Amino acid sequence: MTTATAGGAGSAPPADKRPDTGTGKGTGGRSRGGVTGTRRTVAAAFLLPALVLLGALVVYPIVYSVYRSFLDQSGTGFAGLDNYEALFTDATIRTAVKNNAIWVVFAPTVATVLGLIFAVLTERIRWGTAFKLIVFMPMAISMLAAGIIFRLVYEQAPERGVANAVAVGVHDTFAESSGFPKAHPLPVHPLKAGGGGSFVTKETVRAGQPVSLPLVGVVPAKMPGDAEPAKAATASGDGITGTAWLDFTKGGGGKPNVVDPKELGLKGLTVEAVKDGKVVATATAGADGVFTLPASADGSLLRLPADNFREPYNGVDWLGPSLVTPGIIGSYVWMWAGFAMVLIAAGLAGLPRELLEAARVDGANEWQVFRRITVPMLAPVLAVVLVTLMINVLKIFDLVFIIAPGSSQDDANVLALQLYRTSFGTDADLGVGSAIAVLLLLLVIPVMLFNVRRIRKEGRR
């Protein structure tokens, strides 16, 4: 019997070493081209639903918007570039473009910087996790809810708006507010307007003759809580005494220029004695309205300075034409600083600690470590946050629509809001609205291209 040796003539070559006969078939007789084609077919089958949705929800609206932007308001006639010309000639749209530029420059920058600061500082405190949770919590609130919150925060009335309540509290701490705004004398009273909001006596005063300084115009409920019933002043030596009181009897029945039992003294009212244009003496009315001036006030005119009657400080007009855009940007930063902080903190956790410690060993202080090592190494993460927020603010709509009142909505206008206002309503112009949409697309494309290039560059590392 003949036994075939390895490699001998009687042995068949292994299956994977068989010569290619040119038929394109490998092991088992399957075609490699058939396998590749099958894989492409399966991949196309899986991608087809996504491609259909992408075309229906993204590509078709973009193409149709570009087409519609060249038609007139009715959509039946060709308008050429008239709709695009309106973008640069209409004052309202120009304001929207200007505000969008302000948003793109400041909102992402401030949110990113705050996120960086929060991320770095929370590494140094034991309750950093709790702080991150608090800062990130506004992200769980919808734009609509955040807009309603800040509409109340920015209310003009201090008793309703938190921002103005704080502003008024700080102001009144360093500058005492007026006690009797809108108080004034009647024609029958011995006082007249003295200019600049002050009041002066019609005649000079004399020592030994009590002076009456009655006023009206103060709501009894707004009187000082410790005000007492007014007392008629009595003559006192060489000095000048007088009474300043609210010449109004609740329920009626009082007499003008007469201190009635139910009338209250104007506690804290400042009284100046003016002689030859100079203030020679000053006094303050007590709880019962009585005041006393020295003998040097003899022969002078008594003046109630305007500081007694100035309007109380009511805070800042946050939603006025000049501050409405910064105010809304502040609400956006409140929401998105937590988003920036979380992403930057994740990048910060991945930094090689040995580099930071080596820099400290070499004598670098914390600011130098932060500026020369931490920030440059976080540059990719900072770019992600900044670009994401820039794309986000280009289409900002909710906050502006909710927070800005009707009186200042034109001053806070942005392109997305103008797109809504132009495209809907009784006087809608879809041609101009489509042109605004195309403009927004053109503004977003450079940012997205930058982001794509950055991602490809990171992928090649």
TrEMBL record:
One of its GO terms (cellular component) is plasma membrane. Residues 1-35 are annotated as: Disordered. Gene3D superfamilies: MetI-like. It is a multi-pass membrane protein. The chain crosses the membrane at residues 42-63, 101-121, 133-154, 332-351, 381-404, 430-452. Keywords: Cell membrane, Membrane, Transmembrane, Transmembrane helix, Transport. This is Binding-protein-dependent transport systems inner membrane component.
